[in-house]
Design a protein that fits this description.
Distance between the termini: 18 Å
Length: 317
Amino acid sequence: MTENAPRPTTGARRPCVIVNPRSGGGKASRFRIAERARTLGAQVFLIDHFRLQDLATVARRAVDDGADLLGVAGGDGTQALVAEVAAESNLPFVVVPAGTRNHFAMDLGLDREDPSAALEALTDGVELRVDLGYAGERVFVNNVSFGAYAALVQDPAYRDDKLGTTVRILPEFLARHEGSELVVRTGLLTVDGPDAVLVSNNPYQVDDPAGPGRRPHLDSGLLGVLAVRAETPAETATRLRSGQPPGLTRLATPDDVVVYADVPTLPAGLDGEAVSLPTPVRCRISPMALRVWVPRHRPGAQSAGRPPGWAAIRRVL
């Protein structure tokens, strides 16, 4: 979580909250997010999954119509789409953790067990400034992944069974060195031929290598980089289960991170969503680009810990 001198807010006059009713298995509906948001004076836009809708266009239309705050009840992928519009419009942004994992909300210290509590930011909140990551022209609030990590996200079973899909796919993928040949360059460092690459909006750290990945800061102005190359399936599976990092390069950098590949477009996982990005993919950090409103009272920060091992890495995808 980030704590860069939170500032009291004065309230929004025309907030707009975009609600994904299917995200997190219908979490927004169970917690009556739309109804509560309307009670607090927000205009609510419900995503219709039976229609093709560009959420960035929806958000820009709301801004054109006079919205002075944008909020999203949904998963991290949906959050990133609207966060980009909020940042470019210099409007405050409210995160309602109605997705499955809600990593961004976790690192902001929000209550993931009660998503509706995040709406308190509309009336009794403080403002934080946080960084945004960019992969080419696409924003990410958590991370962008390539190689084996992206293969996990691209697998249809991943959304419903993340851990099981990881254990099933990752060892064989790494051992066979499947996919495109990757090269990662940042500053003076070059990593040749990694099988899995993860670039994050601020570095991940954990209290316990067997615990979930967390970012103690969202305002460091640094990209986190994890690049992995593994050997045999048996070795990879053993290390994956024991938390030992096989062939792991880990660093934090203010420099752009460029991922080269031998193909014109590269499969990637952007905040857990399967996408394809034109190569080379230049990842950068935009320091304190996003104004996030959070409730004055929230669970709080998690302390920083040791560098993540495989057990932690597999939980930040």
